[in-house]
Amino acid sequence: MTIEAPDLSLAALAPLLFVFGAACIGVLVEAFGPRDSRHPVQVAVALVGTLGGLVTTVLLAGTREVTAGGALAVDGAGLFLQATIAGLGALSLLLFAERNLDPARSAFVVSAAVPAGSVRDRELLTVQRVQTEVYPLATFAIGGMMLFVTANDLLVMFVALEVLSLPLYLISGLARRRRLLSQEAAVKYFLLGSFASAFFLYGVALVYGATGTVRLAGVREAVAGAEGGTLVVLGLALLVVGLLFKASVAPFHTWTPDVYQGAPTPVTAFMAACTKVAAFGAILRLLYVAFGTEEWTWRPLVYGVAIVSMVIGAVLGLTQTDLKRMLAYSSVAHAGFLLTGVLGLPATGDAAGSGLPAVMFYLLAYGLTTLGAFAVLTLVRSGEGEATHLSQWAGLAQRSPLTAAVMSLFLLALAGIPLTSGFTGKFAVFRAAIEDGAWPLALVALLASAVAAFFYLRVIVLMYFSEPAVDGPTVGVPGLPTTIVLAVTAAATLLLGIVPGAVLGLADRAAIFVG
Amino acid sequence: MSDSLLLVAMVVVPAVGAAVVAGLPRERTPLARQVALGVSLVVLVLAVLATVAFDPDGDRFQLTSSVPWIPGFGVDFALGVDGIALVMLLLVGVLVPVVVLASWDDTPPARRSMRTFFAWLLLLEACMVGVFAATDVFLFYVFFEAMLVPMYFIVGSFGGPRRQYAAVKFFLYSLLGGLVMLAAVIGLYVVSASAGEGTFAFESLRQLDIDPDVQRLLFLGFFVAFAIKAPLVPLHTWLPDAGAEAPIGGAVLLVGVLDKVGTFGFLRYCLPLFPDASRDFAPLVLVLAVAGVLYAALLAMGQNDMKRLVSYTSIAHFGFIALGVFAFTTEAATGAVLYMVNHGIATGLLFLVVGMLIARGGSRLVGDYGGVASRAPKLAGVFLVAGLASLALPGTNSFVSEFLVLIGSFPTRPVFTVLATVGIILAALYVLLLYQRTMHGPPRGVLFPADPATADPATADPATADPATADTSAAGEPAPAGGHGATAASATATGTGTATGTATATGTATLTEAPPARTTTLLHDLTRRETVVVAPLVALILVLGFYPQPLVRLIEPAVAATMSDVGADPAGTTPATTEGTDR
């Protein structure tokens, strides 16, 4: 029996090859590289991989092809999202590499295998050795995400889901401080994530059973031919649940606050920015390419879930007293806003509506802003680590005006105030929804925005209008990596708010799915 | 400079000025305020130049400029003014330098710098100019929302004791209204897209023929935002808090200009874009307007906090303005626009004077003052002018506008007009009561400390006069004033029982320790700077009271065009101008 080699367009695969290549090299460095020089080498390898991925996606702009035996769809939307993930991933890696803030030089535990609280653990706490395994792990996750958004096949999509998830489960548990919290987060994320993966896999099986194919295009044809019926609907529901879990959309969000709080902050930033992009990329592709003709099935579901997500995110965000948890609920609310844009997708197959580019732009804008916000969180520290309790931020503006100003910018952007990227994104998705006749949803979204604005404002109020706490936190002086991240994200947040034309145009042109 | 760049410059100059001021080091606050004053004066000059370049009989929108901003959304950075916007720009141009001067020597709260205050102020000015000059609905929305941020920081950082609460309340109310408006803005775009090219340009949108049901929804979206901003009665509760807690400069701009965006929005957006809906909803709006006139006036009378009182008077005045706008006659609407300007001047002045009084006494309560006129006649005089302008006494600017609103509204809406007239009487009551309680009567309250008076009325009372008199002829002060002081003082003293003994002790003690230095700091008449601050506004009150013609000339064609948009202008009111500026 001979197996025919599938056609492979290496050029179209270049971004993925770059990132996965870097991840594999990272593993080798970990195994054979001398310990002293590992950190710089690992950082360099990971950055070269992600930035190489970013550059190659840019070079590939305009490509539209289905390759790897039909398993990958390299198209405008896929490349845009890949570039977004690679760029945000590179910025996250910079946060990982920050060595100036923690007195022990890194946010990651030296040896994750040592039980928390043991004698050995206490010894290692102050050791200046750094963990370098996080770099190849994160690079694998980035690669998985980039694969996820271009997967043209339900099985590849599942594989990508696992490739991106497993490293994330691991690095969530690697915090240097408050290790038990971090490990709890990892376990929680792992258990619930496994459930979600199982849901997804079961959905794949049902859809395959109903349609006889796992290719998105094949599914589309079969569904359009009205085969399958109940089985397809069930399969679709399970697939969507699996993806909504990754995108932390309520009511599948319960892991989000705990994991965001427990994971090391650079990892939280990475998850909040990149995982969101990847999950929404997959949702868009799945709903649009495979089930575009099946709009009547998923539309009510997405409609309902969007409302639930916005309301839960906004209302529960109000009650939070920890900044990381607050940003987690903010992420839930934003997932709801994004779904509002998803509804703006047109039912027809090829003509791009305003929904797809709107969601793509929103993902980029939100990713940059939320990454920046978490980067600011890493700066504000009290004795035992980061000071994430709201009360500790009182009067921060007087201690460190620049930090407070940058944080305010990010918060205003998250609240969607004009002249920030958040507003442009919100405008785009709401326009898409209203154009599609979903104005009641847009109205709910606007009200949820107003509610959510309250908790963002509360932080600004604390920073600017409150008297500083007596034993308040110190604001660390960031090293070069974090400074770059803050500069890039703050500049992007402003630019995408003031002159978003170019990027919006790019998203518009790129908003094409093949398959 | 090309005419079309005037408006752009009016937005850019203060924005750049804000950046410059914010960039100055902390210890250069004196330089910061000079820069702020200079920049705001430049804007005033630009506004005057714009007025000169504006031809009242010309096109509806003049000094226009437009560059594509966000092509993906069909948004242009388009500026231009009609007569209504132009007078608002003039108002902004006048009030900002006055506010800068008025805040010249303010002491910021602990660990804050006035430099930041001036930076926010200039940024606010840029946004205010933008909001009035925008001819693209999206751009208008952007300025409308962006305007909140500087005001939020001005109230929140530099305000009174409950500033956090007031700032957040202000922001959330406005943001909520703004978001509802955003839905309507997008709705407008979608409607225009379904009729052809999707656009945000005001002129194109105005010519759309929108289905009445859709109009009603969109109207409500805009209306809620403007009714919160203006504010109309059920949505007004943020204003007394924000007005009371804001620093005086912020309060002047808040009620003087920011709230006008609401009534300006009625005229510019609600009426021309949704004429059918405007006519449908007019009775409802008029009910709210008249309710506001009466209810806010009653509440104003009950206030003990002077800044809250002035805020409530504003709400009553906004009721008048809304009445004028929704009466749908050119006269009434012209009166309403004139009212918007005049109210900015009169209430601005009232806030400034109240602020000067509060700066002297350190208390916002009416009950803490009395007899100020006897020691600070100039201050009291200006207070009286501002008060009389607020109650629209003939001869002051507000009278013209209030009168125009009332005679313009009466033919179409007699019942509402008659009810609103009651508000005039109430206005006289709350203004005159405030004036009488604080300025007349025996000198008493925080500005006239009681203890030295109890010890020896003849020597202690002069201590409240200026230092020169106190030093040279301590006993030479007129007896009646001293007598009053003693009565008031003993009344306080008996209330506390044992206070008399200690009061005597401190009284004698202070006599030996040069008392004038301590007490005279409490009350002095207007300083030279304060005189400069109030003089332009007092002058405007009087000039516009007797000769409002230039402003009316600017306003009337634009208003007539708006009225013809809404299709409710009774024939013959202003035929010539209507034809001249109609589309």
UniProtKB/TrEMBL annotation, chain A:
Location(s), subcellular: Cell membrane; Endomembrane system; Membrane
The NADH:quinone oxidoreductase/Mrp antiporter transmembrane domain, residue ranges: 151-449
Enzyme Commission designation: 7.1.1.-
Keywords: Cell membrane, Membrane, NAD, Quinone, Translocase, Transmembrane, Transmembrane helix, Transport
Membrane topology: Multi-pass membrane protein
GO cellular component, one term: plasma membrane
Catalysed reaction, written as an equation: a quinone + NADH + 5 H(+)(in) = a quinol + NAD(+) + 4 H(+)(out)
Keyword Metal-binding applies: no
GO molecular function, one term: NADH dehydrogenase (ubiquinone) activity
One of the protein's GO biological processes: ATP synthesis coupled electron transport
TM stretches of this protein: 12-32, 44-64, 76-97, 132-149, 155-175, 187-210, 222-245, 266-288, 300-319, 326-347, 359-380, 401-419, 439-465, 477-499
KW Translocase (keyword) present: yes
Primary localisation category: membrane
Matches recorded under PANTHER family: NADH DEHYDROGENASE
Function of the protein: NDH-1 shuttles electrons from NADH, via FMN and iron-sulfur (Fe-S) centers, to quinones in the respiratory chain. The immediate electron acceptor for the enzyme in this species is believed to be a menaquinone. Couples the redox reaction to proton translocation (for every two electrons transferred, four hydrogen ions are translocated across the cytoplasmic membrane), and thus conserves the redox energy in a proton gradient.
Quaternary structure and partners: NDH-1 is composed of 14 different subunits. Subunits NuoA, H, J, K, L, M, N constitute the membrane sector of the complex.
Family classification: Belongs to the complex I subunit 2 family.
Protein name: NADH-quinone oxidoreductase subunit N
Source taxonomy: Bacteria, Bacillati, Actinomycetota, Actinomycetes, Geodermatophilales
Record gene name: nuoN
From TrEMBL, chain B:
Compositionally biased tracts (Low complexity): 449-513
An annotated GO cellular component: membrane
Family listed: Belongs to the complex I subunit 4 family.
GO biological process: ATP synthesis coupled electron transport; electron transport coupled proton transport
Organism, as annotated: Geodermatophilus saharensis
PANTHER family xref list: NADH-UBIQUINONE OXIDOREDUCTASE CHAIN 4
Pfam families: Proton_antipo_M
Domain NADH:quinone oxidoreductase/Mrp antiporter transmembrane: 134-424
Lineage top rank: taxon: Bacteria
InterPro entries: NADH_Q_OxRdtase_chainM/4, NADH_UbQ_OxRdtase, ND/Mrp_TM
Subcellular localization, as worded in the UniProt entry: Endomembrane system; Membrane
Transmembrane annotation, as ranges: 6-24, 36-54, 83-104, 116-134, 140-158, 170-191, 217-239, 251-269, 281-302, 309-330, 336-358, 379-395, 415-435, 531-547
GO molecular function (one): NADH dehydrogenase (ubiquinone) activity
Protein name as it appears in the record: NADH dehydrogenase subunit M
Renumbered residue ranges of the record's region Disordered: 448-513
Membrane topology: Multi-pass membrane protein
Assigned keywords, A-Z: Membrane, Transmembrane, Transmembrane helix
